[in-house]
User: What shape does this take?
Amino acid sequence: MVTAVMIWQAVSQGGSPDPLAPHLSFNGATLDIGVLVFREGLECILVLAAITTAMGASSFDYRRAVAFGAGAAFITTLVTWWIAIRLIDDLTRKVSALNLQAATGLLAIVVLLVVMNWFFHKVYWTGWISLHTQKKQRLLNRAKTTEASRANLWWGFALLGFTSLYREGFEVVLFLQSYRLKRGGRSVLYGVSLGLLLSGIVAVLTFLAHRRLPYRRMLILTGVMLGIVLLVMVGEEAQEMQLAHWIPATALPGLAVLIPPWMGLWFSVFPTVETLAAQAVAIVLVVGSYFAARVPGRLVAATEASHGA
Assistant: This one.
């Protein structure tokens, strides 16, 4: 798909696309949003798969309850999006556009850092899946008893489906406010549609075709792509904070020759101390969280090996 997009851009531009062409930012924003929605969709599918796995034929109604809860969460996410844009639009009448874009951009970076934090996912997200699995098992155990109400069990599974999807949807809603202010609703619509299309394909293969997909590799791949998105957003956010006079702008004339203008448009790399420092901190946080997540696993493996010896 990425290759097809690059070929399409080259053909539509009559050759290699001009990196300074302003309309290319629309395609970049659409792809960024699509990747984030797809990653969040993957995580949601993994949680739902953990809930519905090991359910026998007698649990078919409970699968429907989980699907009902997920559908209700999707509708609630749309309502949350409508409430969020109403609040943001009301703020635009009271706060300057630059200040509001800087604030929403900062919120989007926080959301993206949470999504990209490997240690956070190893500790919290793994616990999130195990928590849902434990709740599912308790509900299934209650279903075997005579005193359990069928209606209560049905709503219990529906609640599991709801929380599995709405958590991811709420994060996406927060993240997209910055893109909506900067790029407009059209790029958000196209990006979300792309992410939902890819997530829908994986969901069909998982729940209907019962295919076992390489979810870990898919999450790592989308994580790498989101890492690039994070660097771009951090550089862009730092520049917006400079324009809003939240932070100073210390130019580096010596790097101006090495960093051409198109680097600023495509990758938000600017020859200033603040923007480059912010991007360096973002890299340290993401890479550091990756190694922080790997160290406990290595210590556990080493301990188990020593006990085995």
Remarks:
- Confidence is low (pLDDT under 50) at residues 299-309.
